[in-house]
Amino acid sequence: MIKMKKRGTIQKPECPALDNIAQETGKLLEAVSTLSKFDVQLRFVSGELSEYTREMQDISQENVSVTEETSAGMNQVNHSVTTAADTLHAVTETARALAKKNADSKVLLDEALPL
To answer: Average per-residue pLDDT in the chain?
Structure first.
C-alpha cells in the first residue's frame, strides 16, 4: 500500500524508490548540464585554436616568402661580389704586366740613352 504525502494542494504518493530515482535524475541532469557547458567551452577554445593555427600558417608562409626573397637577393650580391673580385684580379694582373713592361722599357731606354 502506497501512502500519500500531502504537498501543497496535490497529494503525492510516498515511495522511497521514486524519491531516489528523482534525486538520481537530478544528479544526472546536473552532470549532463556540466558536460554541455564543457562541450560549449571546448568548441569555443577549439575555434580559437583553429584561428590561431591559421594565423600562424599565414605568418609562416610570409616568413618563407621573405626568406626566399632574401636568399635570392644574397645570391645576386654573391654573384656581384664574385664578378667584382674577378674584375679586380684581372685589373691587378694587367697592372702587373704593364709595370713589368714599363720596367723592361726603362732598362732598354737606360741602355740606349746613357746620361
So the answer is: 90
Do 13 and 22 form a contact (C-beta atoms < 8 A)?
no
55: left (phi over 0), alpha (psi -120 to 50) or beta: alpha
* 5 phi/psi in degrees, rounded to 5: -115, 130
Q: Which residues contact 12 (CB under 8 A, 6 or more apart)?
A: 4, 5, 6
Phi/psi of residue 10, nearest 5 degrees: -100, 135
pLDDT tens-digit map of 71-106: 999 999 999 999 999 999 999 999 999 999 999 999
Q: What are phi and psi of 6, to 5 degrees?
A: -90, 125
The kind and range of the H/E element at 51 are: helix 16-112
Task: Give Cα 76 to chain centroid, integer Å.
Answer: 27
Q: What is the pTM of this model?
A: 0.52
With contact defined as beta carbons under 8 Å apart, do 13 and 5 qualify? yes
Longest Cα separation, the chain: 154
